[in-house]
């Protein structure tokens, strides 16, 4: 059983697809419930995987490896085969992200109750998207990673373009093209790495690149080649993360896509960018990564400040949150740039924490939109009076976002900055300005909605019971990590240690 | 040549060709004697059986060693077998499209349609097997002449006439250019046999004529780009594709293109592999920039112009130009993966393109229009058409878990594999692929995001079978490409391609 566990997990959303095929497309209720059940199933398996996962164990666990494709190439040194394997496995980092994916998917499926039409095709695409995300984090070679990475693109294109708001098609195209650029660069890099080293496996690649330069010369791998590959990788993932100035597509997607999809997008898909930078950048090219640390940190601070400034001036709460995501992803970069234990841990914590917080906030914004038909700040006021629970959760989410101690956002920001202060104090000092701005824009948006003069909403019911589930679960998770971060850091420790070893502390 | 020598040739080598020739002849005779009003539809079964028979014959030849007959002008080697399978498979699928094609003025020519298709196929197969400039050229002409007529098969349709006329004229020019180039090759080496040419290329005397040789290469290569619809001779494709009947368009874009690559490989690789350059050892190395520029230009022209097309057939014409550009990339890198990369890509291309044309044929027939809007709301109207069409478009765009992705991945491997790696060519390919996302996804968007009021689309069972076959193959080759690659590695030894057997044994006398 264990031998197949991860593959079962990755492809478990397909069961939902299969079942949905046999449900008549106008049976709204069954489809929606099957949609939730279909995501609960992967969550259940993810929990089984978690129980099979040895906490604090080193290296990869639950690995699977099958031969898949083999090219045979005749070269001057004789026949060389270029095999591609199907290989999956988990370490601490990917385990955490897989859990995050499984949880957020369930909650997003519940949030999808507000979808008004074509439920069947919606959930089929939703399941495919989940499969792609699970696969991205479990993949242990470049080829597989790329395939799952692209599998997330196509369902997203449809989900945005078909179920989004007014300018949905434009958003879908801009999503497709920007991410297409990213994956185009990725593909070239991956093939180049494959052809130079003859392997696609993450660990083997990391090992190959750690060889002394004299041996690398035989493989025609120069320092310049490594640097070029790293920069290309960083650019590719910068699109995904997104890093200023490549962020415009992401704001558009956050504004136009349906709330449940934005939960997934901002909660998980953006994190693929961070995951990629950690695994491919810091993990494979540690020396080059270190020499670029200042640039990465600089972009981190720019992201943080730029996102915060723009969030401050927005009048649409969705845009506020979108720019807030840009800003918060800056903190991931800041942590990575520090490259020490605090920084790395902070970066990964920020990935998880922002995943939960942004999923929560976008879920609540979706709920608000459903009640008012608007997401303009000016359309709301005094929500706390009529809908105390919604307003309360919203306020809590906002506080988590601005990094209130006791919640997950605090831990990650604190550690990331602690790390950076150790390495680049000036940059870090400038960056802290962003934290103040964060507090200002979050409170501005939250307070404008919850307090003040009461505005007329066409439907002023508080969170319904099905809406309370995602809200409370996410809030609980945010508090849990904020109060007991050791759970997360224990799981991450061996993976981060291995990367830190490469980076040299 | 007396009867004894004639009988001494191992004619079984040509079994597939004889089957096609026989069936084509039979069809033309039957067509002649059939009543004028009688339906020609049943003839399609005969033609299909012929193609299947030829396919079976090739599979029986898989174990045969390299043989050549007719004084080494015609050879059966792994290369010819591998590509003949593609040609036959493509034609078989096109035949199904042809037999389901409905237009008032096609019916009176339906009989001709079938045997012209087979004649064109015969020409293409001859190209795959030729080892001599003369036979190569005869095959090329047979394919071309049959294609010219097929393009104009809708006699009362102005567009179809225009298409045929343009095709003849530009085809004639391309042929002239090719022949002009070939005449230099012949003049410099004094031979028409490809292997003897290759031998004579190593003559030290030729070193003095490096420039002439280069000229010959450039001209011939340019002439041969006509059939694959690549720059500089790609201009005919949009007009011809638009005007020709859909099955003919499918044939031109798949089978005829495959044949074009076959002749490029045969002629260019064998004869020029040892040719000296102007100031270096190898001509092929020196012309790399030229081929690179042609490939890049083709990709750019195809993908950028396709963005502006509203007519679905024109869009696919530019798409097919772009695809030709992708397949030219392996020619630049010239890695040892060359053959399997091109073979695999053409196989993938066969499924995705014929699949797409099947749907285009069904829709254009029902809606009486070629505009992209015929796809409006197709997902609502006929999900079983929209979903396979999505697969084909994704595959053409090179998105994973489709055959097209594996094909593109392989091309990248070829481009980046050898030192020096061709990074900028890979970058051009990737950048133009992004452009292609826009127009391929535009069709997808029209199918899924727009509402259309058109009626449900009915698909004849034959077409449905082709559709299912192509869709399943596109996915299976994307998920398990080893099925095709293992078949290739297991049955074909591409070293045979370069093996000159003239010196060993010309005619076997064992009958």
Automatic annotation (TrEMBL), chain A:
<keyword id="KW-0472">Membrane</keyword>
<dbReference type="InterPro" id="IPR003918">
    <property type="entry name" value="NADH_UbQ_OxRdtase"/>
</dbReference>
<dbReference type="InterPro" id="IPR010227">
    <property type="entry name" value="NADH_Q_OxRdtase_chainM/4"/>
</dbReference>
<keyword id="KW-1133">Transmembrane helix</keyword>
<protein>
    <submittedName>
        <fullName>NADH-quinone oxidoreductase subunit M</fullName>
    </submittedName>
</protein>
<feature type="transmembrane region" description="Helical">
    <location>
        <begin position="227"/>
        <end position="249"/>
    </location>
</feature>
<keyword id="KW-0812">Transmembrane</keyword>
<dbReference type="GO" id="GO:0003954">
    <property type="term" value="F:NADH dehydrogenase activity"/>
</dbReference>
<feature type="transmembrane region" description="Helical">
    <location>
        <begin position="261"/>
        <end position="285"/>
    </location>
</feature>
<dbReference type="GO" id="GO:0005886">
    <property type="term" value="C:plasma membrane"/>
</dbReference>
<feature type="transmembrane region" description="Helical">
    <location>
        <begin position="31"/>
        <end position="53"/>
    </location>
</feature>
<dbReference type="GO" id="GO:0008137">
    <property type="term" value="F:NADH dehydrogenase (ubiquinone) activity"/>
</dbReference>
<dbReference type="Pfam" id="PF00361">
    <property type="entry name" value="Proton_antipo_M"/>
</dbReference>
<feature type="transmembrane region" description="Helical">
    <location>
        <begin position="351"/>
        <end position="369"/>
    </location>
</feature>
<feature type="transmembrane region" description="Helical">
    <location>
        <begin position="175"/>
        <end position="195"/>
    </location>
</feature>
<feature type="domain" description="NADH:quinone oxidoreductase/Mrp antiporter transmembrane">
    <location>
        <begin position="139"/>
        <end position="431"/>
    </location>
</feature>
<feature type="transmembrane region" description="Helical">
    <location>
        <begin position="389"/>
        <end position="412"/>
    </location>
</feature>
<feature type="transmembrane region" description="Helical">
    <location>
        <begin position="6"/>
        <end position="24"/>
    </location>
</feature>
<feature type="transmembrane region" description="Helical">
    <location>
        <begin position="424"/>
        <end position="449"/>
    </location>
</feature>
<feature type="transmembrane region" description="Helical">
    <location>
        <begin position="122"/>
        <end position="139"/>
    </location>
</feature>
<comment type="similarity">
    <text>Belongs to the complex I subunit 4 family.</text>
</comment>
<feature type="transmembrane region" description="Helical">
    <location>
        <begin position="469"/>
        <end position="487"/>
    </location>
</feature>
From TrEMBL, chain B:
<feature type="transmembrane region" description="Helical">
    <location>
        <begin position="165"/>
        <end position="186"/>
    </location>
</feature>
<keyword id="KW-0874">Quinone</keyword>
<comment type="subunit">
    <text>NDH-1 is composed of 14 different subunits. Subunits NuoA, H, J, K, L, M, N constitute the membrane sector of the complex.</text>
</comment>
<keyword id="KW-0520">NAD</keyword>
<dbReference type="InterPro" id="IPR001750">
    <property type="entry name" value="ND/Mrp_TM"/>
</dbReference>
<feature type="domain" description="NADH:quinone oxidoreductase/Mrp antiporter transmembrane">
    <location>
        <begin position="130"/>
        <end position="429"/>
    </location>
</feature>
<feature type="transmembrane region" description="Helical">
    <location>
        <begin position="12"/>
        <end position="34"/>
    </location>
</feature>
<feature type="transmembrane region" description="Helical">
    <location>
        <begin position="384"/>
        <end position="403"/>
    </location>
</feature>
<keyword id="KW-1133">Transmembrane helix</keyword>
<comment type="similarity">
    <text>Belongs to the complex I subunit 2 family.</text>
</comment>
<feature type="transmembrane region" description="Helical">
    <location>
        <begin position="342"/>
        <end position="363"/>
    </location>
</feature>
<dbReference type="InterPro" id="IPR010096">
    <property type="entry name" value="NADH-Q_OxRdtase_suN/2"/>
</dbReference>
<feature type="transmembrane region" description="Helical">
    <location>
        <begin position="290"/>
        <end position="308"/>
    </location>
</feature>
<feature type="transmembrane region" description="Helical">
    <location>
        <begin position="259"/>
        <end position="278"/>
    </location>
</feature>
<dbReference type="GO" id="GO:0008137">
    <property type="term" value="F:NADH dehydrogenase (ubiquinone) activity"/>
</dbReference>
<dbReference type="Pfam" id="PF00361">
    <property type="entry name" value="Proton_antipo_M"/>
</dbReference>
<feature type="transmembrane region" description="Helical">
    <location>
        <begin position="82"/>
        <end position="101"/>
    </location>
</feature>
<keyword id="KW-1278">Translocase</keyword>
<keyword id="KW-0812">Transmembrane</keyword>
<dbReference type="GO" id="GO:0048038">
    <property type="term" value="F:quinone binding"/>
</dbReference>
<keyword id="KW-1003">Cell membrane</keyword>
<dbReference type="GO" id="GO:0005886">
    <property type="term" value="C:plasma membrane"/>
</dbReference>
């Amino acid at each position: 059983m264990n031998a197949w566990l991860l593959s079962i997990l990755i492809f478990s959303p397909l069961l939902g697809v299969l079942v949905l095929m046999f449900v008549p497309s106008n049976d709204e209720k069954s489809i929606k419930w099957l949609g939730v059940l279909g995501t609960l199933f992967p969550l259940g398996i993810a929990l089984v995987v978690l129980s099979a996962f040895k906490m604090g164990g080193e290296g990869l666990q639950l690995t699977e490896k099958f031969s898949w494709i083999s090219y045979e190439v005749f070269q001057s040194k004789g026949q060389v085969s270029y095999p591609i394997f199907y290989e999956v496995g988990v370490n601490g980092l990917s385990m955490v992200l897989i859990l995050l994916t499984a949880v957020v998917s369930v909650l997003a499926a519940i949030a999808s109750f507000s979808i008004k039409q074509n439920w069947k095709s919606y959930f089929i695409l939703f399941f495919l998207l989940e499969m792609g995300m699970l696969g991205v984090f479990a993949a242990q070679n470049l080829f597989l990673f790329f395939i799952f990475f692209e599998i997330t693109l196509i369902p997203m294109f449809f989900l945005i373009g078909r179920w989004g708001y007014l300018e949905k098609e434009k958003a879908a195209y801009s999503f497709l093209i920007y991410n297409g650029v990213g994956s185009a660069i990725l593909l070239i890099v991956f093939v180049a790495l494959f052809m130079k080293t003859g392997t696609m496996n993450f660990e083997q690649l990391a090992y190959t690149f750690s060889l002394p330069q004299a041996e690398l010369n035989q493989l025609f791998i120069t320092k310049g080649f490594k640097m070029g590959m790293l920069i290309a990788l960083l650019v590719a993932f910068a699109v995904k993360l997104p890093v200023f100035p490549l962020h415009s597509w992401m704001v558009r997607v956050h504004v136009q896509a349906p709330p449940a999809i934005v939960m997934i997008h901002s909660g998980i898909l953006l994190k693929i960018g961070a995951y990629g930078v950690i695994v491919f950048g810091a993990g494979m090219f540690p020396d080059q990564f270190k020499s670029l640390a200042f640039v990465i940190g600089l972009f981190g601070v720019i992201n943080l400040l730029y996102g915060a400034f723009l969030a401050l001036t927005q009048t649409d709460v969705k845009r506020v949150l979108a720019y807030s995501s840009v800003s918060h992803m800056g903190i991931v970069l800041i942590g990575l740039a520090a490259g020490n234990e605090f920084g790395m841990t902070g970066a990964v914590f920020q990935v998880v924490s922002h995943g939960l917080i942004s999923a929560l906030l976008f879920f609540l914004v979706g709920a608000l939109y459903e009640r008012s038909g608007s997401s303009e700040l000016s359309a709301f006021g005094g929500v706390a009076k009529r809908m105390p629970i919604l307003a309360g959760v919203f306020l809590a989410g906002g506080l988590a976002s601005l990094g209130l101690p006791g919640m997950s956002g605090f831990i990650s920001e604190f550690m990331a900055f602690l790390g950076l202060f150790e390495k680049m104090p000036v940059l870090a000092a400038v960056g802290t300005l962003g934290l103040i701005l964060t507090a200002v824009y979050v409170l501005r948006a939250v307070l404008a909605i919850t307090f003040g003069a009461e505005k007329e909403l066409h439907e002023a019911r508080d969170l319904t019971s099905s809406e309370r589930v995602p809200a409370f679960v996410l809030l609980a998770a945010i508090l849990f990590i904020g109060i007991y971060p050791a759970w997360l850091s224990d799981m991450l420790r061996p993976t981060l240690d291995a990367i830190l070893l490469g980076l040299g502390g | 040549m007396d009867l004894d020598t004639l009988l001494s040739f191992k004619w079984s080598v040509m079994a597939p060709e004889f089957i096609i020739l026989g069936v084509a002849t039979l069809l033309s005779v039957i067509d002649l004697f059939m009543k004028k009003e009688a339906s020609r539809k049943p003839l399609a079964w005969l033609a299909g059986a012929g193609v299947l028979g030829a396919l079976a014959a090739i599979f029986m030849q898989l174990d045969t060693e390299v043989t050549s007959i007719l004084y080494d002008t015609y050879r059966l080697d792994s290369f010819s077998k591998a590509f003949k399978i593609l040609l036959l498979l493509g034609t078989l699928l096109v035949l199904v499209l042809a037999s389901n094609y409905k237009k008032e003025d096609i019916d009176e020519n339906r009989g001709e349609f079938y045997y012209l298709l087979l004649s064109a196929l015969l020409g293409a197969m001859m190209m795959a097997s030729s080892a001599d400039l003369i036979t190569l050229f005869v095959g090329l002409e047979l394919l071309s002449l049959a294609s010219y007529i097929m393009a104009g098969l809708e006699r009362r349709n102005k567009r179809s006439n225009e298409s045929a006329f343009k095709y003849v004229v530009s085809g004639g020019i391309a042929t002239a250019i090719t022949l002009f180039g070939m005449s230099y090759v012949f003049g410099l080496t004094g031979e028409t046999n490809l292997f003897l040419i290759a031998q004579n290329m190593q003559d030290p005397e030729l070193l003095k004529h490096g420039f002439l040789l280069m000229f010959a290469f450039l001209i011939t290569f340019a002439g041969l780009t006509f059939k694959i619809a690549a720059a500089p001779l790609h201009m005919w494709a949009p007009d011809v594709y638009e005007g020709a009947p859909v099955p003919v368009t499918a044939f031109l874009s798949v089978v005829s293109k495959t044949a074009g690559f076959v002749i490029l490989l045969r002629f260019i690789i064998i004869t020029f592999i040892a040719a000296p350059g102007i100031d270096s050892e190898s001509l092929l190395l020196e012309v790399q920039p030229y081929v690179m520029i042609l490939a890049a230009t083709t990709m750019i022209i195809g993908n950028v112009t396709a963005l502006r097309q509203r007519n679905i057939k024109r869009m696919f014409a530019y798409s097919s130009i772009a695809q030709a550009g992708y397949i030219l990339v392996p020619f630049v890198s010239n890695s040892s993966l060359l053959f399997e990369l091109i073979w695999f890509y053409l196989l993938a291309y066969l499924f995705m393109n014929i699949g797409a044309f099947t749907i285009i044929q069904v829709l254009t027939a029902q809606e009486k229009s070629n505009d992209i809007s015929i796809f409006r709301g197709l997902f609502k109207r006929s999900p079983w058409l929209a979903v396979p069409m999505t697969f084909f478009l994704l595959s053409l765009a090179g998105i994973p878990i489709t055959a097209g992705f594996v094909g593109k991945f392989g091309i990248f491997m070829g481009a980046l594999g050898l030192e020096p790696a061709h990074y900028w060519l890979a970058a051009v390919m990737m950048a133009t692929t992004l452009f292609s996302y826009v127009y391929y996804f535009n069709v997808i968007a029209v199918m899924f995001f727009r509402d259309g009021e058109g009626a449900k689309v009915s698909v004849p069972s034959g077409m449905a079978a082709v559709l299912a076959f192509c869709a399943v193959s596109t996915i299976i080759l994307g998920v398990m490409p080893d099925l095709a690659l293992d078949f290739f590695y297991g049955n074909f030894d591409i070293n045979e391609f370069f093996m000159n057997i003239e010196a060993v044994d010309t005619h076997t006398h064992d009958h």
